[in-house]
Design a protein that fits this description.
The protein has about 160 residues and is of the alpha+beta class. It has a single domain, classed as Nucleoside diphosphate kinase-like domain (Alpha-Beta Plaits, 2-Layer Sandwich). Helices cover about 40% and strands about 20% of the residues. A four-stranded antiparallel sheet has the order 2-3-1-4. The protein starts with a strand and ends with a helix. The structure holds inosine-5'-diphosphate and magnesium ion. Inosine-5'-diphosphate binds next to helix 4 and helix 7.
Length: about 160
Amino acid sequence: MIERTLVLLKPDAVQRSLMGEVLTRFERVGLKMVACRMVWVDKAFSKQHYAEHVSKPFYPGLESLITQGPVLAFVLEGVDAIEVVRKMVGPTEPKGAAPGTIRGDFAHVSYAHADERKIGIKNLIHASANKDDAKKEIALWFKADELHSYKTVHDMHVLE
Ligand code: IDP
Ligand code: MG
């Protein structure tokens, strides 16, 4: 099943100059970038993107993190892309994220540490959690004419 999923490299990833390293991982497995933009998110847009979390205790820290600098927003396409990208990203808390995952390889902090300091947990990246979220999030971040269809060299191996 060819799917599309929304990925954000959060301000901590952008500020740590990790965009290239992370994008390389997605390119290497043959996922296709079909849209991309750098965006400085404001508080209102954060509340739209993180609507499910707005009333949670960690939301203020999360909002201040996601609005503190530009994010790189992009859409990846591939077979079961939503699940594959979440697998590559790893679990939310870097402390428990396995080596080999993006959060496990580039961060280590715990919820307890973030909560004690009342800061959002710096885990580098967002990826849509399921089909419904992917559809909503892609529509929130991109206009239809910003989503491209084209062939990569992977397509002959992925599709044929
Ligand atoms: P996800 O990014 O792995 O999908 P969600 O539960 O959707 O995780 O949470 C969204 C974001 O909110 C997380 O990536 C993280 O930055 C932040 N967050 C989630 N839970 C906590 C928490 O308990 N303390 C601090 N920050 C949190
Ligand atoms: Mg989530």
